[in-house]
Amino acid sequence: MNMVRIIGRNIKKLREAQRITQEELSFRAKMSVSHLGSIERGMSNPTVETINRIAHVLNVEASIFLVENEAQQLSQEESMLVKKYVSYLMRVPKEKQKQLLDIIDALFMLEMENEE
């Protein structure tokens, strides 16, 4: 898949996970709805400035848009769980996100130790 489509797909998935409409995101990112729609469909190559504005509104690092989504290989149930917890994380401040992710990391480490 080409990079423009990967970026568009990731923007759309993050936007939807946060329950933000195209209209709201485009307004907050200072762009037209049609341009955002074109980006999400992989029809338009966004500038770095546009990607940064979208990332700022979605409260994520811009680099996240560049990674091909591994969630495509998850089952529908697993994908829904991922979306649910991403949505929860996106609703809390960045410092709380880090604390929660640190707790999750610690739990995974304990689980891995128990498996050995």
From TrEMBL:
SMART domains, sorted: HTH_XRE
InterPro entries in the cross-refs: Cro/C1-type_HTH (IPR001387), Lambda_DNA-bd_dom_sf (IPR010982), TransReg_Diox_bact_type (IPR050807)
Short name of one Pfam family: HTH_3
UniProt keyword list: DNA-binding
GO CC annotations on file: cytosol
GO MF annotation, one: DNA binding
Domain HTH cro/C1-type as annotated: residue spans: 11-65
Highest rank taxon of the organism: Bacteria
Coiled-coil intervals: none
PANTHER family in the record: HTH-TYPE TRANSCRIPTIONAL REGULATOR, METHYLPHOSPHONATE SYNTHASE
Name of the protein this chain belongs to: Helix-turn-helix transcriptional regulator
Lineage, broadest ranks: Bacteria, Bacillati, Bacillota, Clostridia, Eubacteriales
